Amino acid sequence: MFSRCRPLFFLWLLVSLALAPLAAQQVIVRGTVISAVGERPIEAVEIVQLPGGAARRSDVDGSFVLRLDPATQTVRFRRPGYAVVMIGRGALLDSLPLTIAMASVPTEVAGLTVLGEGGGGLARLPGSGAVIGAEALGAMRPLSSTEVLRGVAGVHIQDEEGMGLRANIGIRGSDPDRSRSVLVLEDGIPVALNPYGEPEMYYTPPVDRMDRIEVVKGSGSILHGPQTVGGIINFVTPEPGRLTGVHGVALGGGGGFAKAQVSAGAMVDQTGLLGIATYRRADDLRGLGFDQVDVMLKGSVPLGPQDALGLKVGVYDERSNSTYVGLTDSLFRADPLAYPGKDDFLEVRRLTTNLSHQREWASGVVLKTVAYAYATTRNWSRQNYSYNSTGNSIVYADATGNRDRSFQVGGIESRLRAHNIFGEFEGGLRGHVESARDRFLNGGTATSRTGALRDDERRRGTAFALFAQQNLAIGSRVRVTPGARLEHFRFRREVLRTRVRRTTETGTTNLPEDVDLHNDDILTTLIPGIGASWAASPGTTLFAGIHRGFAPPRTKDAFVLGTTPLAPGESASDPVSLRLDAEQSWNLEIGTRSEVGRGIRVEATLFRLDFSNQIVEPSLSSGSVSQARLANQGSTLHRGVEAALDLDLLQWGGPPLRLGGQVTLVNATFSKDRLLLNGSDTVNVRGNRLPYAPGRVVALHLEYGGRGAAGLRLDGTLVGEQFSDNFETRLGSANGRIGAIPAHSLWHLSGSWPMPGSPAVLVGSVKNLFDRTYIASRRPEGIKPGVPRTVQLGLEWGI
User: Fold this and answer.
1) Could you tell me if 207 and 144 are in contact, meaning their C-beta atoms sit under 8 angstroms apart?
2) Distance between CA 744 and CA 132 in Å, rounded?
3) Which residue from 277, 291, 603, 604 has the highest number of Cβ atoms inside 10 Å of its Cβ?
């Protein structure tokens, strides 16, 4: 694989060398960026030479160096919290060195900032990270966010239904099941069902309305929580006032796929307003049918020269025939496009609101407070089934199991960011509450959406977090960034109705009964971290970091019910606390980010994740059929390397051609003795690879044109072999749940063509360009094939 990439690399190198003389007419411009009020240096300002320039960033002391052609180029200076400054062609040489004064303005008000617009925060991030901006999202024409995240080094995606309705994201070998090892945010606010007690992603923010996607994998994770094990995925929506006018998208494609989106934005006396409404549907994408409606409204209102208020409201509604049931081995071989569980029905509804206040002082101190609340209902009707005696066929019953669940989350978080004599401080606190209602109803027909109540319980949690991080500047090139996060979580499980095993004269029964069972537990954990960076040259940064990974135990797993049969009339006992500690790890990394030359960006990171207490989740989505008794157990070791290369030939005076690639090599194994039952045998799995942790993932992209002109983009992903169980079983089981997942490659093609004399742009894409048939997953319950080749074609316009 790597030998095939080598000729392409040398081709890039030869082209770059051939185009180098074209830069001879350029001059060197030096300058400093300062704040208009207080005249203090501003670091991490994004500096872009237009047209077609790569982004650079100002140093700790606000300084920058540019090589440009003053007769043809314009320079744009941009940083979150400041008004954009443009310096035209004639003014670049008027006064040297340049002094760029940037005025402070409220920005990104409706939410919390993780990295910031343009990825300016990458310069001060004490570790590895990535930003997928609006231009890249527009060029890819993605159907889902998971399609985008495949191109990020260190990230692995486990597909389920192909449309990314329920994201399964893993980072650096962590289990991607329901993204529970990754902290997923939207505008800095958690989006999981219950972020502490049930961090599953049954709702994924639609990529259609995103301005950018941010990924943080290093010690900068401790500023956000509660999950700090794998990393952070932050979906960022456009800020009010940045998008003005009316914009629309209309797409159609195979399988009855259709998408319509309308967005409208305006600025009225410095008040920003934005609304985005999206509708997507499909009749038959490998059997999947769905309707999805998403509406978001945002506004920002200045309350004075230093204060601003932000509001965000969202409504999401999804109905689909999503199913847990996968294909058996024989069904997959006979027809990989077959879709079992067609009568299953999932309904997801979500209401969310954020109210934010930001105050910024002239000294560079910013205090932001966000109150957030959201409610999610996830009702899933799934037809009961079993397998025949050989396990090769699915036998459906005339009954359903209806899993009706609702979740409520609320909290308030305040963050303070301040420049001081040592560097920059960021810290704050958060109070958080969450609750869940979980009901299981037995339906009497294959399409019943309700039925007799079998199980009913409530789960509640309250949490308090305190966090701080100080960026210490040592000279102009070295930064050390220590930080810590304190998490305190109190949780409770209340069982109102459940099946109770009783001994009778005729045997043992297991029937539902009304009960009143409950138990509480408390968890307090300190999460330290420290990162360091060295600006080895104006375009190269070396970094290293270590932090404590933390993930609280799922509330439902922390308490289990007794299984000993009761005598007639005997009362059931309260759930037993397993006293599960949080999942913990030590995460280390060392790497570099560099602009080797004009238009050439390189990043490489060595990482090591050492889990001392990994808890195996018995969720249905990970393939479990019943609740298992858990314990503090499991040591795993994840070691590997990530590397990314991006080349923009336009920066060398060549064609508008951009190429890039990311490689992740990871070895995630059980690192200590661990005895598990495999059938009737007890097996020590020490040294075995973890399930769903491919040893290699390679992503490539090639983009020609675009950015206001006609363009094409080709994206490819190569995923290495994976195992679906702890025993590295290669031979596929009859029911399809166990066995190796062979390596596969996937290619997507997208393009755009502005229509002459019209504000419309013709857009299209082909997903799975070569129509590859492959196994995407063997869970939750059988083989999930990848989506076949699909074509979309449509129009985008703006007025």
Assistant:
1) yes
2) 24
3) 603
Mean pLDDT computed over every residue of the chain: 84
Q: Determine the Cα–Cα distance for residues 430 and 464; give it in Å rounded to an integer.
A: 6
Q: Decide: helix, strand or coil at residue 312.
A: strand
Give the predicted TM-score (pTM) of the model. Answer: 0.84
Q: Is 334 helix (H, G, I), strand (E, B) or coil?
A: helix
Average pLDDT over residues 87-114: 70
Residues 6+ apart with CB under 8 A from 714: 701, 702, 703, 747, 748, 749
One-letter amino acid of 469 = Q
Q: Which of 654, 720, 36 is nearest to 362 (CA)?
A: 36
662 to 5, 128, 719: CA distances (angstroms): 12, 14, 12
Which residue is listed with tokens 């900068």? 220
- The residues that bridge with 799 in the sheet, in sequence order, are none
- Closest Cα to residue 256, out of 212, 291, 214? 291
What pLDDT score was predicted for residue 596? 74
Place of tokens 């004639």: 90
Burial state string for 228-267 with b = 16 or more CB within 10 A and e = fewer than 16: bbbbbbbbbbbbbbebeeebbbbbebbbebbbebebbbee
Amino acid identity of residue 7, one-letter, is P
How much is the average pLDDT of 509-529?
Answer: 88
- Give the pLDDT confidence score for residue 719 in this predicted structure: 95
Among candidate residues 348, 373, 353, the one with its CA nearest the CA of residue 166? 348
Under the banding of pLDDT at 50, 70 and 90, the label for residue 56 is: confident
Contact 309, 370 (CB under 8 A): no
Strands 232-236 and 183-186: what pairing?
Answer: parallel
Does the structure show a pLDDT above 60 at 20? no
Looking at residue 104, its pLDDT comes to 60
Q: Are 464 and 488 in contact (CB under 8 A)?
A: yes
Q: Kindly give, in sequence order, each residue whose CB lies less than 8 Å from that of residue 623, ignoring residues fewer than 6 positions away.
A: 724, 737, 778, 779, 780, 781
Of 642 and 599, which is predicted with more confidence? 642
Question: For 570, which DSSP code?
Answer: P
pLDDT in tens, 474-512: 877 888 999 999 999 999 989 899 888 888 878 888 889
Q: Report which of 31, 28, 62 is spatially closest to residue 45, judged by C-alpha positions.
A: 62
Residue 368 backbone phi and psi in degrees, to 5: -125, 130
How many residues are present in the chain? 799
Burial class from Cβ neighbours inside 10 Å (0-12, 13-18, 19+) for residue 476 reads exposed
What is the DSSP-derived secondary structure letter of residue 556? H
Check residue 12 and give its pLDDT: 42
Share of the chain above pLDDT 90, in %: 46
CA–CA distance, 61 with 478 (Å, rounded to integer) = 12
Q: Is 760 helix (H, G, I), strand (E, B) or coil?
A: strand
Which of 467, 474, 433, 438 has the alpha carbon at shortest distance from 453? 438
Beta strands per DSSP E along 44-90: 46-50, 55-57, 63-68, 74-78, 85-87
One-letter amino acid at 293 equals V
Give residue-wise pLDDT tens across range 178-214. Answer: 888 899 999 999 999 999 989 988 999 999 999 889 9
**Is residue 409 over pLDDT 50?**
yes
Please give the sequence-ordered ranges of beta strands (E in DSSP) within 562-674, or none if there are none: 576-577, 583-597, 600-613, 636-648, 657-670
Amino acid identity of residue 35, one-letter, is S
Helix (H, G, I), strand (E, B) or coil at 93: helix
Tokens 């045997």 map to which residue?
Answer: 507
- Examine the pLDDT at 11 and tell me if it is beyond 50: no
> What string of H, E and C letters represents the secondary structure of 427-476?
EEEEEEEEEEEEEEEEECCCCCCCCEEEEEEEEEEEEEEEEEEEEEEECC
For residue 641, give both structure tokens.
């390397």
- The Cα–Cα gap between 775 and 689 comes to 19
Cis peptide bond prior to 226, omega within 30° of 0: yes
Instruction: Give the pair of three-digit tokens for residue 498.
Output: 């459940």
Cβ pair 438, 459 in contact under 8 A = yes
